[in-house]
Each structure stands twice: as structure tokens, then as C-alpha cells.
Amino acid sequence: QPGHIFPLRAQNGGVLVRAGHTEAGCDLAQLAGLTPAAVICEILKDDGEMARLPDLLEYAKLHGLKIGTIADLIEHRSQHEKLVERVARRTLPTAYGEFELATYVDKTTGRTHLALIKGEINQEVETLVRVHEPLSVMDFIEQNAPEHSTSVHEAMQKIAQAQAGVLVLLHRGETSQDLLARATLVAGDKQHAQ
Question: What phi, psi does 11 have (nearest 5°)?
Fold first, then answer.
């Protein structure tokens, strides 16, 4: 009904997490140095239908307004914001020699990601890089998990042999129920194999 207000709550991370109008309004306010809050409304055409982009471009031209899209905002934020921050770094002894463990936090999701770095990384030389999104923490126990073409162990071994490389471990957000189901499945497979 006209005159009614429906409060909406933007997702943390804004348009980089959800490409919606609510998030875009809050992101624009924050980019302007203001509190991330906004009022959004629909512009209607003369026939009462909601105006689409071609209609809005015409409306903006008629009234001397600037216009941007959610895609423009996503591109701007992706290019100008530091979205990942390194929060820790230490030496990690492994079965494949010493690696440097770097811990990163994704500022849009709050998830933690890891990078295992071996040797000196040189821009002039091709570097072995394996990006691994573990389906489960069980990936580190199961050396021959069928879901991945290369196991974490194989990747670390190849990087160690090359004397330089990076293994990136992306956080998937596994629940305790996921882990329990996977552990039960692995135990059953091993028992069945004997």
C-alpha cells in the first residue's frame, strides 16, 4: 500500500555478498563516508508499471541525474577495496619440509583462508599453485578422496619437489553435521575395504 514502510536489512559484505538494492543503498552511503543506511524506492512509469533500466536512463537524462547499476558498484568495490587481509604468518613443519603458513580473513564473509607457501616466489618464474576448497576437514586425513583430482598431500609433495609453490586452502564453512557424516562415511568405507 502507498505510504507503508518495509524495513529491510542489508547483508554484511554488501553487494559483494548479495547483489541487491538494499545492499547497494547501504554500500553507497558507506562509500560516501556516512552510516550504511538508505531509503530505497521504486520509480513508476505513467502506466503504474515499475520502471526498468531503459526507462530509468531516460528519466535520469530528463532530470539531469547520474545513474549507476549494481554491477557498477560491484566492480568499483572489487577494484578499490582490500577484500582479504593477512592476519598471521608463521613457519610450519610438515612431512614435506617447512612451509610458511599465512592466514587470511575475507572481509566480506569473515571466513578464514590459509596459504601454505614453499620457497621464494618469483614473478619471472612459473610457480606451482593449487587452490583447494576442502569439502571437509576430512580431506586432510583421506589421502585419496575421490572428489578432488589432486589431494592436499599430492599438492604439497609436488610443491616440495619444485622447491617453490603455494597451496591455497579456501574455507568452505563445514558444519559439525557435515563433518560427522563424512567421518562416518570414511570409517564405513575403510571397514568395508578390509
Answer: -75, 145
